[in-house]
Automatic annotation (TrEMBL):
Protein name: Bacillithiol system protein YtxJ
Native source species: Chryseobacterium defluvii
Coiled coil: none
InterPro entries: BrxC (IPR022551), Thioredoxin-like_sf (IPR036249)
Length: 124
């Protein structure tokens, strides 16, 4: 990895891979939406080339380490899967931003936040 990659998080996946379910296709997105009918579901849209997105992701992961609620967490690398990111914006009527957190319940977006507004308080 280049020095810029180290600084800006080039191709960096989320730290807690056991926590995150990866969205890499519309099928994965449909699974996340279906899951939201059974428990609260969170989608984190992350830009792997953005230092701010990398920082927000790390801070968010620290916040949710000890969460005791039944919540499913999904991660979308929006640079690798931009069409899925666009579909999320279209399906839920939420303007695309990065990083972005979208909370789903019963197939609907009930909350969303971007940049430094992303926190556990958006979920609970």
């Amino acid at each position: 990895m280049s020095i810029f990659g180290k600084l800006f998080g080039e191709n960096e996946a989320p730290k807690q891979s056991s926590l995150w379910k990866i969205i890499a296709s519309e099928k994965d997105l449909n699974e996340a939406v279906e899951n939201s009918y059974h428990q609260k579901t969170v989608i984190f849209k992350h830009s792997t080339s953005c230092f701010i997105s990398k920082t927000v992701l790390k801070n968010f992961e620290k916040e949710i380490e000890d969460i005791d609620q039944k919540i499913s967490f999904y991660y979308l690398d929006l640079l690798a899967h931009r069409s899925v990111s666009n579909k999320i914006a279209e399906d839920f009527g939420i303007r695309h931003e990065s990083p972005q957190l979208i909370v789903l319940e019963d197939g609907k977006a009930i909350n969303n936040a971007s940049h430094q507004d992303i926190s556990i308080s958006q979920i609970i």
